[in-house]
Structure formats: C-alpha cells, structure tokens
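Subject: for your reference before the review

Hello V.,

The reviewers asked for a structural picture of the protein, and I figured it would be easier to keep everything in one thread rather than splitting it across files. Below is the amino acid sequence we used in the manuscript, unchanged from the supplementary table.
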Amino acid sequence: MTRTGSIPVLETDAPRAGARGWWALVVLMLPVLLVSVDNTVLSFALPEISLALRPSGAEQLWIIDVYPLVLAGLLVTMGTLGDRFGRRRMLLIGATGFAAVSALAAFAPTALTLIGARALLGFFGAMLMPSTLSLLRSIFVNRDQRRLAIAVWASAFSAGSALGPIVGGFLLEHFWWGSVFLIAVPVLIPLLVCAPLLVPESRDPNPGRIDPISILLSMATMIPIVYAIKSFAVDGPTVVAGLWAVLGFAMGALFVRRQLRADIPMLDMALFRRGSFSGAILVNLLSVVALVGFLYYVSQHLQLVLGLSPMVAGFALVPGMVAMIIAGLAIVPVSRRISPHVLIPAALVFSVIGYLLVAFIGGSILSLILAFVALGIGIGAAETISNELILASAPAEKAGAASAVSETAYELGAVLGTAVLGGIITAFYRGALILPAGLGHAQAEAAKETLAGAYAVSHGLPHPLGTQLWDAATTAFGSGVGVTSLIGAGLVVLAGVIAAATLKGRARS
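And here is what came back from the structure prediction:
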C-alpha cells in the first residue's frame, strides 16, 4: 500500500507505467541476462579451463565461487549505496567496470589470475544486480504491472541460462575458452547508451549518513560464512572451517545489533519480522541451491561422461530453460487469485519430481532433459512469486536494500549449490575412485582431484590403461549422484514447507 497525502492507495490502484517504462525494463534485463549467461557459460567452460590452466580441485571451486563470494559480501553495501547516491548511477558504474574486467578474465594466463579477475567481476556485479530490481520497484508502482515486470525480469535469468550454453558452446568449439568472457562487452554497451535515456534515476529521499562500520561488518559476516561453507565442502569438518563460521556469525550478531540501535540503519532489520519477506528470501535461497547444484552435476556429466560437445550439451538443457521462462510468466495471472502459500509449494512439486528422476532413473540424455524440465517449472514459478513478494514487502525508498538482500540470497544459494551439492559429489568421487595400477604419483593425484583431471590424464595414457582409468572415474562420479539428488529434493521440499508456513494471505495487496 502506498500513500498520496493522507489517503492510502492500494498498489493495484497506483498509476500504471507507460511505454517508456517497458522500454526501461528491456534495458534493465541486459545486466540480468549477462550475469546468468556468465554463470552458465562458466559451468560449461570449466572442462576447457581445467584442461588449459590445470587448476587444483580447490582452485577449480574458487574459479566458480569467488565471484558469488565477493558479490554476496558486497550486495547489501552496494544496494544501500544505490539508495543513497542513485540506483541508476550505481548501475552505470558497475556496467563499465564489469565490461573492462571481463576482458581481463578472457586473457588470464593462470588459474590464480582468473580467480582474481572473477573477484573483481563480483565487485562490479554487486553494483549491477540490486540496482536492476530496485529500479523496477520505482518504475512500476502498480503491483499488477510490477508482477508482470518481475516475471519478465526473472525470465531474463532463465533466458540467459538457456542462451549461455549455446553461445558459449559455439565459442568454445571455434575459439579459446577466454572468448566466453568477452560476450559481456557487446551486452553492456547498449546498456551504457540507453540507460541514461530511458531509466529514471531514483534514490532514498532520507538515506541517512554512510556508516563505514556497518559496511565492514556486513562484509565480515558474509565472506567468512561462505568461506566456511566452501572449506567444509572441500575438506570436510575442520577446525579452520569452524573458526571461519564462528567469526562470520559473530560479525553478523554485531551487524544486527548496530542496525537495531541506529536511527537510520543501513539495513532495516524490521523487514525480517515480516513473514512474507523472510519466507520469500528463504524460498529464493533454497531454490537457487537446488538449481545451481543440479547444473554443476549435469554440465560435467553431459560433456565428460556422455561425451557431448559444449554446444550439444547446451541444447540438451534448452527445454528446461524454456520451461522455466514459461512457468515464470504463466504464474503471474494465477498469483493474483491464489495465495503464495499454496501456489509455491504446488509449483515446487515439479522440482522435486525432477530430482527424483535423476536419483532413480539415472543419467541418460532423455532422463536429464525431462528432469531439468520438471525442475525448471517449479523454480521458474517460485522465483517470480518470491521476488515480487520481497519488493512488495519493503517500502519503496528501501527498494535497493531489499533487492540487495534478495540478490544476496541468490548468490549465497549459488555458492551453496556448488560448494555443498558439488562438494558432496566430489567427496563421493574421491572416496569411490579405484585407480588402476601403473599410474605415476602426479597422474594419480590429478585424477583424484576432479573428474576433469581424470579425463585429462586418461586421454594422455596408452590403451588400455587410459580406458581403465576413465571407466573407474565415471563410475566413481556417478556413485554420489543418487544421494546428492535426494538431498536436492529435500531442499526443495523444505522451500515448499517454508512457503506454506510464512506466505499466507499475500495474494493481493
């Protein structure tokens, strides 16, 4: 509900955006499209990167995870700065930096250089994502229009994920792996030209002072927690992982305490007392964990185990991405009439079925296509509804901070999907791998690290030793798929339970 003077106005009765608003939406979809393409392309480019740069198992996970790690640590800060200094301004600064660093990543000579470039991409990406969603809140004040706009915005994630493997596959088959990073440049140039013309600037009229201590505490909360999760996934329960987790939660407690005592906090903690806000955040988080964990397994299985080229593997995932887009758009008219506490659990049933197909049928191309279609239907619908609830639950002037919390959940989910579900598969792989006799020490260590490492070693060995190693590696990799799929299904069920318990009565404004 908004107010005009002293008269309350329902958001469904608020003024409707015109043609310029919808063109602004097209512009704001570009960075979303880019980030989703980047995530999917990297998953499909990882085998090529592993063969070219020869990263260790830890470095391989860092190549994937350092971007969302830095992003998650800075999103709340950047969202708050956008509320203060202007969301469009932050968007343009982030786009410029992201394009420049993408060129640096494309020509990285070592794994460590690529990790550093990915960290810088996370820094500038943190300026992009909260700005896009919060600007939608200011452009589409009418809630019915905003539902549709967010569905279209969310579909850009799915569209980018669908285009990523195809575009990336074409580039990987014709050029070197670094070419997948250069696609950021032609996507961001139209944004830099059109955003000043079409996207109106917006900011919090009463932002308060900048609080450097809160900024440091927010980063000191997210980074140690995410690092602890990664360390636990790679090395198991260790003292180091426990200490990082304790540090992160301690900093989080100090951050919350400071926000509660501030007259104008950097992040209004009262938002989390609203069941619709907290519940939607958790649904976002768990849905992304399930999606990214699935893609981590499938991208390697299709290319390394089934032997598909990157482009063909990308086409195999297109039906699931299309299903995600259609579900996200089709759920909009339904969400006006049915409460989210019923609609989201019903949609997520499809995602549970997708994971169960992988757990009990196996890894054939057809079963993976059907599984991803089912997974995409549930997550596409859930993401559209939850993102709209997050914005609807927050005051318009705090849209940047609220969007940043939503994006933090998304990026934390990406880290958890790779680190936890990916880490479980890696642990099963290492535990089940039985190396054939005749391997050198360096060859054995490389084969134990990752499936891509075993692929590289086996294809450099004479027959039949290479065949024996590769057969053992694929068998070991498949040993953890069933358990990991059941865990993924359990996470989706948990998301549905949370939605049923917290999102009652939010179908209408």
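For the response letter, the relevant points are probably these. Residues 1-10 have pLDDT under 50 and may be disordered. The CA atoms of residues 341 and 499 lie 5 Å apart.

Happy to draft the paragraph if you're swamped.

O.
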